[in-house]
Amino acid sequence: MLLAHNKLKRTFQMWAAKHRPHQSQRTMYTKRRSDLLPALIFLLPGLVLFALFFLGPMLYSLRISFFQWKIVHPDQSVFVGFRNYQHALSDPIFRRAVLNTLVYTVITVIVKLFLGLGVALLLNQRLPGRTFFRVAYYLPVITSWVIVSLLFEYMFNGQAGLVNYALNNVLHIIPKDILWFADPILTLVPIILLDIWKGIGWAAIIFLAGLQAIPAELYEAARVDGANFAEQLRYITWPLLGPTTVFLVVVLIIGGLNAYVPFQLMTHGGDPMDLTHSVLTLMYEATFGRLDFGYGAAISYLLTLFVFLVSLVELRLMRQQAGAA
Amino acid sequence: MKIKRLSALFISMIVVLATVLTACAPAAAPTSAPTSAPATEAPKPTEAPTQAPTEAPTQAAAPVTIQYWHTHSDPETAQLDKVIAAFEAANPGIKIAPTRYAYNDYKTALLTAISSGAVPDVARLDIAWVSEFADQDALIQLDGTMPNFDTIIKDTFPGPLSTNVWKGHYYGLPLDTNTQVLLWNKADFDAAGITTPPTTMEEFATDACKLSDKAKQQYGYAEGGTYFWAPAPVFYAMGGKVTDPDITTATGYVNGPDSVAAFTMLKDLYDKGCLSPNLLGGGIATDAGHAQGNYAMIIDGPWMVDIYKNNYPDFKVNFAPIPTGPQGTTSSVVGGEDVVVLAGTKNQDAAMKWAAYLLSPEAQKMMAEVGQMPTLASLTGDPAMPPYFAVFQEQLKTAQARVPHPKWGDMDNAINNAYQRILKGDQTPQQALDQAADEINALLK
């Protein structure tokens, strides 16, 4: 009897232990419900603004993407189904724009990650003038895209540019001046270099924050165990920077896919021969240059879809990282 | 507990109200003020004197305000204010509210206004845009609706006027015009021992090569790019055509023998190093290169006078007509702006009055002082015109308008790409222009 009682008591305790989190969650939930109204009222202005200025226009442009849109008389617009999307996918100019954007994104993201990490490791040392270097590396980040784009365009001028002068007249690496912006592939060189130059500082600052969150004791322990710098980097720094790295990859890829300003300014909208568009400059030209709003909206949605898919993959990676750590 | 929750609710509501009120106040003000306010206040008064004779005495009618959008430069904008003052003095019931835009933002601004319905009453448009906007039903047809329309257009140059036609009707008036002529750097010519600018295309080609020295970044001729506007004067003078007059086909026109000859000549100059490679992109700009002596000849418009006055005050510009082609005729390309009345204006009568006034000899003369070339034939040779207008006005007699078609932008692109393929040697001029003809024909369908 006593035995049975004790057994039952244990079973109950086990049951209680098992279900306690549930119970506490339920009370939290009911508590949350009672607070829902004030919370909603607080959220309302934000939600209204979001619906009005983001959600509304997004849905409206989704609608536009299925029409041959008439801007003055939207009611006369012709429904064309998925034709705008088909047009984009079969358009060689769009495909080239996608290729340009992908090449740009892959190169800039990889280079910015590695150089950013390198700079962050240097800036994390106790060097004299550390603050100065931190500021210096971050300065390009806060400069205006427009100004530095124009500056790079001048530097890469085919007849009077500094870069040709250095390569041809000083270093004698090239036999004659290169017309950078006359060639659809070479045009990407200044665009990519500009983005790397401008973006290293930001990647470095994020890495630096990640580095400083790594407890110093780990390094001390590693040193006691005889780990050299490379081993510390391999077994402490790199794994512990995992979440930071994934975050950077996500944000940098989204930023790269949305590249617009340097492309628009340095290629003047796809020069030469519409071979140097990014997806967004092509979208802009289709919409506001040729007034083809349906096509422009379709391009926007294809880009959105792609960014969404890429982000999903990345978020999964991020969650795996978090689980591993 | 209960009281605490109530007070939380109360406080949150107050906070929300406060944020909503403060957030909305500044947000609402700027959107409504510049666009809709003058337009909505304005409409009724025009009709007020006639429709409400008992209450409102004619004198006391509030003035109608006409929104006028443009992309004038600084000196032109200052001069426009004088034109507006003169118009308002002559028409006491009408006020003109000008808004200036940067050229690159202008189309977007107009489209935004049109799609939201808050349109300006009158706008100055690039001549290449009129058919495009007319095709979107954004403009009011002027023949049949504008008082004295036929009298007004009778005195205008035919080239600029033709840019206002879409589907057999007029959707604008030619406001100002321009064309491109030859600019020759006298110092370069002296150094090469050439005394006068070329008068035929053969001379032009020979001179261009005589004036070139690739090693010194010295070229006899330079174009600003491969977009149609740049080679257009040479193209038209050589007898080139883009489409037939009725704009039904490009076959036999853009790839006809004259058009091919024009691009063959340019390709030849490029290969010999007599045409600067800057036109492919990313080189020395034509205006700077010409003034600094890198480019002995360029082809450009009347605005170069003011540009050089500001940027290279010591440089003296020399103009000459575009050299004549094999048929012995010169030609060039018509540029300029038209004035249009937008569909959706609530002050159509006053808007048309203002548009018509801009075409008056008085207004045209005032704008000519700052380099806007008048579109009225009767002002040719008028002593009020700056002397350098003469060569442009002479050139305008033979200058041709680009194809007035809503898809012109795409046609321009087709020729631009053909020119690129020719210069890079990917295709012969004939092959490249055959392809352009196919592309343009597809746009005309």
What does this molecule look like?
The complex is a heterodimer of chains A (325) and B (445). With 325 residues, chain A is an all-alpha fold. Chain A has a single domain, classed as Orthogonal Bundle (MetI-like fold), CATH 1.10.3720.10. Chain A has 14 helices and 2 strands, in the order H-H-E-E-H-H-H-H-H-H-H-H-H-H-H-H. In chain A, 30% of the residues are buried. With 445 residues, chain B is of the alpha/beta class. Chain B has 2 domains: 62-177 and 336-396, Periplasmic binding protein-like II (D-Maltodextrin-Binding Protein, domain 2, 3-Layer(aba) Sandwich); 181-332 and 407-444, D-Maltodextrin-Binding Protein, domain 2 (3-Layer(aba) Sandwich), CATH 3.40.190.10. Chain B has helices at 2-41, 43-51, 74-90, 103-116, 130-135, 149-154, 158-162, 186-191, 201-210, 232-237, 257-271, 286-291, 304-311, 348-358, 361-368, 389-396, 408-424, 429-444, and strands at 64-70, 94-100, 122-126, 165-166, 169-170, 173-179, 181-184, 219-222, 295-300, 319-320, 334-341. Chain B starts with a helix and ends with a helix. At the A-B interface, helix 2 of A face helix 1, helix 4 and helix 17 of B.
